[in-house]
């Protein structure tokens, strides 16, 4: 049975708080199996008989909207896809190891267009650098995220689609469970 990771956007920010035991219960209510959460930032690992992640994603989003009363953008990756994302090296090791530099990974619904990818490069600066691979955007931020001129909202506007970001450390910790 396939194992997936659902990356939920803004599940515990902006006044919307969902305890992880309730979130697990909601996923179990959908018939998903072996549900576990990872860090209280909306990472849910589960098994499903479904092999169509688009249908599964819509089912989860619709159910969370119905139960919670607000939209929870959901991005699903298989555990093997997440391992590949965690292993990918978009920047030089010395850049990633420099104190103060942080790698964020943006998860998208679909592949961005070539035009959108080009627009993203307009945001490249001494502080921010970007690399796109598949449905993920790798953002090297050489300062605190709050001090960067770039944001997730700008990515969504540039690409014309939803996204959610995770610190690469979080992605690697989830992936380690499946190596």
Task: Tell me what you see in this structure.
The chain is of the alpha+beta class. The protein has 7 helices and 8 strands; from the N terminus they run E-H-E-E-H-E-H-H-E-H-E-E-H-E-H. Helix 3 crosses helix 7. It is globular and about 45 Å long. The two termini are 17 Å apart.
Measured distance between first and last alpha carbons? 17 Å
Structural class: alpha+beta
Shape: globular
The low-pLDDT segments are none
**Main sheet makeup:** 4 strands, antiparallel
Provide the number of structural domains. 2
Widest β-sheet, arrangement of strands: 2-3-1-4
Q: Helicity range of the residues?
A: 25-40%
How many E strands? 8
Give helix and strand order, one letter per element, not per position: EHEEHEHHEHEEHEH
Number of helices: 7
Calculate the mean pLDDT score and round it.
94
In short:
The protein has 179 residues and is an alpha+beta fold. The chain has 7 helices and 8 strands; from the N terminus they run E-H-E-E-H-E-H-H-E-H-E-E-H-E-H.
């Amino acid at each position: 049975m396939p194992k997936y990771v659902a990356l939920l956007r803004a599940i515990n920010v902006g006044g919307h708080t969902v305890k992880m035991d309730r979130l697990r219960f909601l996923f179990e209510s959908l018939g998903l199996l072996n549900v576990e959460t990872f860090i209280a930032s909306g990472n849910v690992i589960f098994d499903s008989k479904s092999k169509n992640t688009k249908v599964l994603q819509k089912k989860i989003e619709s159910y969370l909207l119905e139960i919670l009363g607000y939209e929870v953008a959901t991005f699903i990756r298989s555990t093997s896809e997440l391992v590949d994302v965690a292993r990918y090296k978009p920047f030089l090791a010395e850049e990633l190891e420099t104190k103060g530099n942080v790698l964020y990974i943006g998860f998208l619904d679909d592949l961005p267009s070539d035009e959108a990818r080009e627009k993203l490069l307009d945001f490249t600066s001494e502080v921010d650098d970007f690399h796109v691979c598949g449905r993920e955007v790798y953002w090297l931020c050489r300062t605190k995220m709050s001090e960067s001129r770039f944001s997730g909202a700008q990515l969504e506007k540039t690409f014309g689609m939803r996204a959610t970001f995770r610190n690469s450390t979080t992605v690697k910790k989830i992936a380690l469970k499946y190596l």
